[in-house]
């Protein structure tokens, strides 16, 4: 930068000297040329103002005045009108140099300020990026901790659920061992079978949550599957005073596991029936969406779901029912996502709930 300033200064000085020599060496009778030469002084003055700011503009104007003044005094002496014009031109040199230098300096200050602001914004962006990366790492650690916590909670619930039927099985076995007669043996054996089935169901639910089962995907008709589910649940709906409605849209066949979709739709529809009050209505509608996916909407007129519960509705073991296990919707979401689809819920307290299932035509 220092060498550049020296080069610019030398260039300006050479320009002033060259223009002054043109004045001194040109005969006075060529007044037109002198008028052109005195206008040429503005070039180094303006360049100095742009390159060096206010001081550069004024300094170059003073240099021009010093170089040009002897030409006015000694060569144009005696021409009063001509001298006044030249003196006014000298004043203009200094005015132009000062104003242009001031404006150039202000522009430079503004540009430097903008550069500092840009550098500050860049530093802020870098800090924000580092903080966001840190937050992502912390979030991942929290997610791992949450998974470990969920695993611990899952293990505790599984142990609790298994312990009760195991206690019943053990007690029944002890009674059979102590009682040698076969009078009550059939009754106790029924208890053993019942508790064993219950234990098996708990383990199956746990395994269903832990790992996906192999899918048997083939072409199936979703309208037909939903019609079968509505028929199966119509009696339960009538018992609760709830009306079921099925609106079938024109749907192409979908490649899916009908058994798993049956389970998922059954879970959603059962929840909708249980959430509806006496005289309520549950509506199931199928449509082909604009994005080429099949959409199934389950809408009830129940009490709705609070925002706090809505955020946790798909978490395992979360339930708002007194007797629920909290696995139904979690398993349902896993089934839908296993088919490449999405499961969304919209609800407001007092305004009912809508579950939207979107499935691709092929997995």
Please, could you describe this protein's structure?
It catalyses: ATP + protein L-histidine = ADP + protein N-phospho-L-histidine. It comes from Geomonas terrae. Its EC number is 2.7.13.3. With 363 residues, the protein is an alpha+beta fold. It has three domains: 2-121, no CATH class; 150-210, Helix Hairpins (Orthogonal Bundle); 218-359, Histidine kinase-like ATPase, C-terminal domain (Heat Shock Protein 90). The chain contains nine helices and seven strands; from the N terminus they run H-H-H-H-H-E-H-E-E-H-E-E-H-H-E-E. Strands 2-4-5-7-6 form a five-stranded mixed β-sheet, covered by helices on one side. Strands 1-3 form a two-stranded antiparallel ribbon. The longest helix has 99 residues, at 80-178. The protein is rod-shaped and about 145 Å long. The mean pLDDT is 79.
Helix count?
A: 9
Give the N-to-C terminal Cα separation: 65 Å
Radius of gyration: 45 Å
Globular, elongated, flat, extended or rod-shaped: what is the shape?
Answer: rod-shaped
The CATH C-level name of the largest domain is Alpha Beta
Helix content: 55-70%
CATH architecture assignment name of the largest domain: 2-Layer Sandwich
CATH superfamily of the largest domain: Histidine kinase-like ATPase, C-terminal domain
How many strands? 7
Poorly predicted segments: none
Which strand order does the major sheet show?
Answer: 2-4-5-7-6
Range of strand content: 5-15%
Overall mean confidence score, pLDDT: 79
Order of SSEs: HHHHHEHEEHEEHHEE
How many domain units? 3
Find the structural class using helix and strand composition: alpha+beta
Stated plainly, the CATH topology of the largest domain is called: Heat Shock Protein 90
């Amino acid at each position: 930068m220092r060498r550049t300033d020296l080069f610019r200064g030398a260039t300006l000085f050479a320009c002033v000297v060259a223009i002054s020599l043109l004045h001194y060496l040109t005969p006075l009778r060529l007044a037109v040329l002198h008028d052109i030469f005195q206008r040429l002084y503005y070039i180094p003055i303006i360049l100095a103002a742009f390159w060096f700011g206010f001081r550069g503009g004024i300094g170059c104007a003073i240099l021009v005045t010093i170089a040009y003044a002897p030409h006015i005094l000694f060569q144009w002496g005696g021409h009063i009108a001509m001298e006044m014009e030249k003196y006014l031109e000298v004043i203009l040199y200094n005015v132009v140099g000062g104003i242009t230098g001031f404006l150039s300096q202000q522009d430079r200050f503004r540009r430097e300020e903008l550069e500092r602001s840009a550098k500050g914004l860049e530093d802020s962006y870098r800090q924000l990026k580092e903080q966001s990366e840190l937050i992502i790492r912390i979030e991942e650690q929290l997610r791992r901790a949450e998974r470990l916590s969920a695993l611990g909670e899952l293990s505790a619930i599984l142990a609790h659920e298994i312990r009760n039927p195991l206690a019943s099985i053990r007690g029944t076995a002890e009674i059979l061992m102590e009682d040698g007669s076969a009078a009550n043996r059939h009754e106790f054996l029924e208890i053993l079978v019942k508790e064993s089935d219950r234990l098996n169901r708990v383990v199956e639910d746990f395994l269903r949550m832990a790992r996906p089962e192999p899918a048997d995907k083939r072409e199936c008709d979703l309208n037909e599957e939903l019609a079968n589910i509505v028929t199966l649940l119509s009696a339960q709906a009538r018992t609760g005073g709830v009306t079921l409605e099925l609106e079938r849209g024109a749907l192409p066949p979908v490649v899916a596991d009908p058994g798993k979709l049956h389970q998922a739709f059954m879970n959603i529809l059962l929840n909708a029936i249980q959430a509806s009050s006496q005289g309520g209505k549950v509506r199931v509608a199928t449509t082909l969406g604009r994005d080429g996916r099949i959409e199934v909407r389950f809408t009830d007129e129940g009490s709705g779901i609070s925002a706090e519960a809505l955020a946790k509705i798909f978490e395992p073991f979360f339930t708002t029912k007194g007797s629920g296990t909290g696995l139904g919707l979690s398993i349902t979401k896993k089934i839908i996502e296993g088919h490449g689809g999405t499961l969304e819920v919209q609800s407001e307290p007092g305004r009912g709930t809508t579950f939207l299932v979107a499935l691709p035509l092929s997995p």
